[in-house]
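User: Hello! I'm new to structural biology and keep hearing that structure can be predicted from sequence alone. Could you demonstrate with Calcium uniporter protein? Please show me the input and the output so I can see what each looks like.

Assistant: Of course. The first part below is the input, the amino acid sequence of Calcium uniporter protein. The second part is the output, the predicted structure written as tokens.
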Amino acid sequence: MRMTEVTVNYRHGLPIITLTLPTRRERCQFAVKPVVATVGMFLQDIQKEDKGIVRAEVFATDGSKVSDATLMEVLLMNDFKLVINNTTYSVSTPVKDKLSSERATEMEDIKSLVHRLFVALHLEDHQIRKERELLQKLDHLKEQLIPLEQMKARIMDSADAKTSRLLWVGLALMSTQGGALAWLTWWVYSWDIMEPVTYFITYGSAMAFYAYFVLTKQDYIYPSAKDRQLLHYFYRKSKAQHFNVEQYNKLKEELAEAEESLKRLRQALHLRLPVQEITNKD
């Protein structure tokens, strides 16, 4: 056997892959757990053992790349090519003795059980890591939102004050108009003269309300009109003070999504607690 070859042997039911490390020029054996180990995990083990390996990939005999998520059990069913740095090794897998159908079914059940146990044991650790990542993301988003929230509050207060002033001005103008019409009706002219004037004023107001509907596609309802004017002042003030409304809305959406993900994750962890308690009692 040449020192540069990559060999696969079975020992106590586990495949042992032996290869030569390129930097240290020595043979090294890697015990593989085919049921739970993936191609990516195997390649990471090789790179950890020899820091001089910058490229490690696995290809099928037809030249197609094997995914890192492929289980080693699937890979070892056929011959394959192992590429380390610029060197390609053709790896021949030994032929295993065929099992009886009953024995094969039993082994598949055992493999499935081992895989489920592996997932169950590592699921909680994954959820805890995910929770830590979500908490860090929430803190980062909140730090970004604090100055934007303060600026938004100042702009909103200014827009609300300006809208309130506009409403009071409208009330003052309507009061002035009513007083002027009353003065003209009772002190200057008579109702016979002022009646057509009030008619045209009313008709002009109806035209103004209809024009509002044509432009906004909304009925002229006082609360809606106030909110629309408030938003108009808010966006104009935001542009003047360089407040990025789109960035603020995007951060708020990301914050809501992160909070919802954290809530679902904690619910999942909470649902797992009774199962763990029962397991501990057993």
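User: So the tokens describe the shape?

Assistant: Right, they're a compact way of writing down the 3D structure. Reading them back into a model, for example: The radius of gyration is 38 Å.
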